[in-house]
Specification:
5-stranded mixed β-sheet; 12 helices; globular
């Protein structure tokens, strides 16, 4: 709670938003192919939770969720591409860490998926626990927190795990499925995606129960443009708060005229113009929700229990339903 009188001033757009409006497109750094989070199909259509964040941002700032150019980036390329201005936003299963926050010249926006690193093994290996990986080979992608976590975990538990390291995600996956390693490690969500997409028979592989790290994932932007940072961050919080207050892709238009809830009216721009504080118009958040649905809808469509990945909502549920998703107030 804060006491006092504050005068809210309209924001100027900022250089990144100016560039986006001039080109008519948001350039989004995406994964090279992680089903459920960011992947292109055979026709070039991109889908996934991370992709939907970019679509929501484009809807908010350009009025059209399709005005996004996706640039596939591997783990080694991703930060350089954002630092150099090749992409406007990196929305690609990237973990927020102190080192990345403090040393790359980038800003962490908001967490879109709380994850943890795990292990996948063949059922025929009869391995039931990570403790049974002592002295075993584990496939891992280089240039990731995953590689460092594996080393830390092995050392802390005295397991003597032998990492088999690959620069490309696809190479690490292929090495595991062809038997070069007894296990494959990455974020648990990535394991589920890989098992569903790459395994000839998904049921032949199990994900072990242990999570060995915290992996808060979310979009990143360059430092030095506070206006763009605020836009990306608040679009995410808006999607979260929309779910909390029951605003969906289907009812967003009707709620503009029917809702008497002050929070709903504020989010949809019918009682206050929050957009002017971001250099946008008052319909910014309503357009984002209309384009992608709220956070819960994005989750369920891309990675939830009824999707091919079949991931439980778990800690990614709303804060008032036992999860960690707690949106800052759009007000």
């Amino acid at each position: 709670m804060a006491i006092g009188t504050l005068t809210a001033l309209p924001a100027h757009a900022g250089k990144t938003l100016d560039s986006i409006k001039a080109r008519g497109q948001v350039i989004c750094g995406a994964n090279t192919g992680l089903a459920g989070f960011g992947a292109a199909d055979s026709t070039g259509k991109w889908t996934g939770l991370d992709v939907d964040v970019c679509r929501a941002v484009a809807a908010a700032v350009l009025g059209d969720a399709e005005k996004v150019k996706y640039v596939p980036l591997n783990a080694q390329q991703r930060f350089t591409a954002l630092q150099s201005g090749e992409v406007d936003v990196l929305s690609r299963n990237t973990t927020f860490t102190l080192t990345r926050d403090a040393s790359l010249g980038l800003n962490l926006t908001a967490v879109t998926y709380y994850d943890g690193q795990g292990f996948m093994v063949p059922v025929k290996s009869k391995i039931k626990s990570a403790a049974q990986l002592k002295g075993q080979t584990v496939c891992v992608q280089s240039g990731t927190t995953t590689e460092k976590n594996l080393t830390d975990y092995s050392k802390a538990k005295g397991l003597g795990i032998k990492p088999v390291v690959f620069e490309q995600l696809e190479a690490a996956e292929n090495a595991y499925f062809t038997g070069r390693c007894i296990a494959y490690t990455t974020d648990a969500s990535g394991l589920a995606s890989t098992r569903n997409k790459v395994a000839k028979v998904p049921a032949d592989h199990i994900i072990l129960p242990e999570l060995i790290s915290k992996e808060p994932l979310g979009p990143m932007v360059r430092r030095g443009d506070d206006e763009w940072y605020a836009i990306v961050k608040w679009v995410i919080y808006g999607l979260l708060e929309a779910e909390e207050y029951g605003i969906t892709q289907a009812n967003v238009d009707s709620l503009k005229t029917s809702s008497t809830d002050p929070v709903v009216r504020r989010i949809l721009g019918t009682s206050e113009d929050t957009g002017k504080l971001l250099g946008l118009d008052k319909e910014w958040m309503a357009r984002a929700i209309k384009a992608t649905g709220n956070y819960g809808e994005i989750f369920e469509r891309n990675v939830g229990p009824k999707s091919p990945l079949g991931l439980p909502r778990g800690v990614n549920n709303q804060w008032n339903k036992g999860g960690l998703m707690y949106a800052f107030p759009v007000r």
